[in-house]
Amino acid sequence: MNAELQTGVDYTRLHYRGRISQIGIYLGKLIRMFVYQSDWKVLPMAALIAGLVTFAVGANLYKTQEGTLQGSFALVCVCIWNGFFNSIQVICRERPIIKREHRAGMHITSYIAAHMIYQMILCILQTSIMLAVCMLMKLKLPYEGLVTPWFLTDLFITLFLITYSADMLSLAISALVRNTTTAMTVMPFVLIFQLLFSGGLVVLTGTALKLTDFTIAKWGLKGLCTLGNYNARPMVALWNTIFKFRDLELLGYKPIGMIMDEIQNRDMLDEVLLASGQYNQNAAYVYTAENLTGCWIRLIGIGALFAVISVVLLEFVDRDRR
After folding, report:
1. CA distances to 49, 53, 88, 106, 152 from 129, in Å
2. How far apart are CA 211 and CA 196, in angstroms?
3. Cβ neighbours of residue 25 under 8 Å, at least 6 residues apart?
4. pTM for this prediction
5. Based on the domain organization, do 188 and 254 belong to the same domain?
6. Per-residue pLDDT reduced to its tens digit, 23-64
7. Pair (225, 257) in one structural domain
8. Residue 273 sits in which domain range?
9. Are residues 40 and 158 in the same domain?
10. What is the spatial distance between Cα 292 and Cα 283, in angstroms, rounded to a whole number?
11. Which among 40, 71, 133, 167 could bridge 61 via Cys, Cβ 3.0 to 4.6 Å?
């Protein structure tokens, strides 16, 4: 009876219910935990982080190549952070309860399916909050989408899939470790691996570059940069670097300054910045629907893989002597 009160699950009902019915039972339990155990706190946290990121990097997002890359990377960080915190403790914090309920007739597939549905709802809410914050911060977004007719819809799908796949990775970690302390210790290392091997801001070669294919961050960043039409944006870094040498004198003249002044006087600066962007294009970010949907498919595959891993890990929970 004490265990029943603690978990809100009737063991006798589990014995005589099929997998589908058990999904409903555990989904109800998770919703009650969301309301009564303050699991809802992840939602205002998502709003706060989205606001900080939009304030910091939103000014140049989808305006320049540098701004698009940095802003997209920041959004990927927010999504992965949200996904990790959603589920990093949800299984390991009740591991002894899972053992008892499994012996009482709980199906692991039903238990994980309930978590998948619940986490999907949570990720949808977080993504909606992120986009709402971006709109409130007056972030200027393109209108036309790449896969759907609307950019906002494509952006929502991309951000959701990044968050949800990170959530499923975190769920698998929670199914593997023995307690919440270990889970919170492992999480920063997994997060650093994801961000370091995103293939975006850090230049990687050889084996390190191949490792990027196994990260959520790579496909998330690639999807966002593709959607943001990175290759068509102007590049400002080259102009800003050359500008530092405008006062350099050669034989009594300032040739760099003279050229730069001439470009500005003839209103050719936009053309020069666009030309700079053409020389800095990235083939991985080609603006096609196939490229974006390819990223979506990989993110879905990663999420599904870690969901299956979670089931496999918990199927052996009865043998756990830790």
Report:
1. 11, 13, 21, 34, 13
2. 10
3. 9, 13, 14, 17, 114
4. 0.88
5. no
6. 898 899 899 888 887 778 888 888 888 888 888 887 788 899
7. no
8. 236-279
9. yes
10. 13
11. 71
